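During the reporting period the student researcher (J.K.) took over the structure-prediction task from the postdoctoral fellow and processed the backlog of single-chain submissions. One of the processed entries is reproduced below for the supervisory committee.
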Amino acid sequence: MTTPDYYERLAQEFKKSKEGIEALTKRQNEMRAELVKAIQENGYEDDKGHLWYEAGSVELKYERRVSRSFNSDAAEQWARGLGIWEDLKKVVELLDEDKLLGYVWANKDKEAEVQGFYTEKESWALKA
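J.K. obtained the following structure tokens:
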């Protein structure tokens, strides 16, 4: 059988390990920033735009990542300017949650049914 002393020691060790992880994460972030600066100042760029730097026996890569996003406002202005907006637009019908709640407010007998449309997600966090 485990004793309360065991759990007290376990909780204290848990708190210390959490503090240690925070200190290590802080140091890791500092080292990362310093290495990135060194790569940017001294590294070379490959054909894909990645930066490389050889730090002794360790080869570092500062990887370039590109993402594209669609500017729907600019595209809409462009389409309207060409007069083709009506041909390109799409109408999407959605239930308005605020209107649904207004309906329930006025029709209390429907509240239980509408509550069934909501799902709850439960999570737990250990604090020490």
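The committee noted the following: The beta strands are 44-45, 51-55, 58-62.
J.K. will present the remaining backlog at the next meeting.
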